[in-house]
Amino acid sequence: MKDQIYNVLFLCTGNSARSIMAEGLLTQLGAGRFRAYSAGSHPTGTVNPFAVEKLQREGIDTAHARSKSWDEFVQPGAPRLDFVITVCDNAAAEVCPSWPGQPITAHWGVFDPAAVEGSEGEKRLAFAKAFAILERRIALFANLNPASLERLALEQRVRDIGRTASSKASE
Fold it and tell me: How many secondary structure helices (H) and strands (E) does the chain include?
């Protein structure tokens, strides 16, 4: 079981920024151990260009980045999810679909950089800050060894990542 690849779905409302960045980060940081996906409850249909720019500046491939509905992940033939993590407060408050296989769920709320108004520089800074929060959390997550933990302990650790890493990110 140590060679298992764990499927992780990052959720947000629009699936245009935070969840897209989280998917790209885990794809890079968790390569060979985790397979990352993202989706939205009400996808915008486009990926925010500042999210794409930030990922590309960090050397993360954006070729497969697309805004999509979470409905794709409850259809027959969808990947079996091991983890479902919401990264925005709106998606966390919504009634989610019933995920097949009872994945571990957690909420890692991150402010919405796409909602920041101002100059392009101010928007880039907002995306950099949101990216830094996600990067810290995903680095902690990618270092977990799910096979060595009981489900309840694993679920608690994944949820704790969303609480503990946010205070460090604001320093």
Answer: 5, 4
